[in-house]
Design goal:
By secondary structure, this protein is of the alpha/beta class. It has eight helices and eleven strands. The protein has a single domain, classed as Metallo-dependent phosphatases (Purple Acid Phosphatase, chain A, domain 2). The strands form two sheets. The chain has a six-stranded mixed sheet. Strands 5-6-7-9-8 form a five-stranded mixed sheet, with helices on one face. The protein binds manganese (II) ion. Manganese (II) ion (MN) binds next to loops.
Length: about 240
């Protein structure tokens, strides 16, 4: 049996084919899994668990059905859906994970992250992240009417695009939006692990590296923009695969 890892689906009403691919994945391959881990950015945006739309309702139902069929689902929030909360967990049955989260995967300690914390060279983003992860900020934000929160999210997306365009213009985009190698090894050392799985950078790969004199592994999940992407972990090893639309 495989444990499945996905991230960065960025589900959005503008890409219904990706939502359909994900719902099909939940109803087919995921049913045979030991567990499903969603490592953030399942949704393109999330302004609170009280939001609803045909897409949100369909995803909630798909997760609920999978969990009812006996497959545990774990959800680690990303930079787009960091406001997923206790109500979403109760509605679906998914279990929320901290970032980072240490698990034992087929006997091996494995650290799970969304990945944005590893992009420590992007100082502007890290400042923004600290602000929106502050419990007081979140409480204040979630107390606003849904329409105001949706308007803020649209504005934040435009600002993020502008930030990316600025980095692109200065040819810094590739480096700044990837992980910092130092932060990766510091993180592995801090948690005493030699294996890390994360998403966020949309650069799927299985990297070998050295950390504290040991061979270590950093596995990066792929996005779901023009295809799906899944990491299958079994006792035999890892398979990082694409899912065709
Ligand atoms: Mn992300």
């Amino acid at each position: 049996m495989s444990t499945l890892f996905i991230s960065d689906l960025h589900l959005d009403a503008e890409r219904p084919d990706i939502t359909a691919l994900f719902l099909d994945f939940l109803a087919s391959e995921a049913r045979a899994a030991e567990a499903l881990y969603i490592l953030g950015d399942l949704f393109e945006a999330w302004v609170g668990d009280d939001d609803s739309s045909p897409l949100i309702d369909a995803v909630r139902a798909g997760l609920r059905d999978l969990i009812a069929a006996g497959v545990p689902v774990y959800f680690l929030r990303g930079n787009r859906d960091f406001l997923v909360g206790a109500k979403f967990a109760a509605d679906t049955g998914a279990q929320l994970l901290a970032d980072p989260c240490l698990i034992t995967l087929h006997g091996e300690p494995t650290l799970l992250m969304h990945g944005d914390l590893l992009c420590s060279d992007d100082l502007a983003y890290q400042t923004f992240r600290r602000q929106v992860r502050d419990p007081a900020w979140q409480e204040n934000f979630l107390a606003q009417p849904l329409a105001a929160r949706q308007a803020f999210a649209a504005q934040a997306r435009a600002a993020s695009q502008q930030h990316q365009d600025g980095l692109k213009a200065s040819n810094a985009l590739e480096a700044i939006t990837d992980v910092s190698a130092d932060t990766v090894t510091e993180t592995l050392t801090r948690y005493g692990v030699i294996r890390l799985i994360h998403g966020h950078t949309h650069r799927p790969a299985i990297h070998s590296l050295r950390s504290g004199g040991h061979s270590a592994q950093r596995i990066v999940l792929g996005d779901w923009y023009t295809q799906g992407s899944v990491l299958r972990a079994s006792a035999d090893g890892f398979d990082l695969a694409m899912l065709a639309l």
